[in-house]
Design brief:
The protein is of the alpha/beta class. The protein has helices at 38-45, 58-61, 67-82, 110-119, 133-142, 154-163, 175-189; strands at residues 10-13, 50-56, 88-94, 127-130, 145-149, 170-172. α1 (38-45) packs parallel to α7 (175-189). The two termini are 24 Å apart.
Length: 190
């Protein structure tokens, strides 16, 4: 009897404040700066997971920058990661403002469901990493485990997590610490 193909495990990454510095509606390549420990952390996670970016970009909907500006910046980020041997399978972007009440804005799980279908992802064995309560809610809503980062807006929104009774699986000071905590976590589960 043939064994059923094992589903893939994924890391769904927020972008601004998680992978790169968030200077507020960041979209210019000259403002691009990778956060420290991101490359090292992704390399720690690479043997276990495939990677996706899931990002809310209301700056597009607000008219602060164009979808093309977003694509240029994001392609630059993906290229930098590729140059270090890190493959981002796909970027899911929501260009809408919160008031649009769209289906693609985090914490709604449309993007993760799409990834699950397209890439045969086991969401229960996957993780969401981000620096906003909406990132953690996205993971919880989709049945993923979560890491709340204290980079980017993380420290600022820590009280929001507590006030809204949102409980991440893990909290980390930076990306490399998050990656090591995830690997420790999955080793304990095995």
């Amino acid at each position: 009897m043939k064994s059923k193909k094992e589903k893939q495990k994924a890391i769904f990454l927020d972008r601004d404040g998680t992978l790169n510095e968030d200077k507020g509606y960041v979209h210019k390549i000259e403002d691009f700066k990778l956060l420290s420990g991101v490359i090292e952390g992704l390399k720690v996670l690479k043997p276990h997971f495939i990677f996706f970016i899931v990002t809310n970009q209301s700056g597009i909907g607000r008219g602060y920058y164009t979808h093309e500006d977003f694509l240029r910046f994001n392609e630059h980020l993906v290229h930098v990661l590729e140059s270090h041997g890190i493959d981002i399978k796909k970027t899911y972007v929501c260009p809408h403002i919160p008031e649009d009440n769209c289906e693609c804005r985090k914490p709604k799980i449309h993007s993760l469901l799409e990834a699950r279908t397209q890439y045969d992802i086991d969401l229960r064995q996957s993780w969401v990493i981000g620096d906003h309560p909406t990132d953690i809610l996205l993971g919880i809503n989709a049945g993923c485990k979560t890491v709340y980062l204290l980079t980017g807006h993380g420290k600022h929104h820590l009280t929001d997590l507590k006030q809204q009774s949102i409980t991440p699986t893990l909290i980390a000071d930076n990306f490399l610490e998050a990656a090591n905590l995830i690997v420790d976590y999955i080793k304990k589960e095995d």
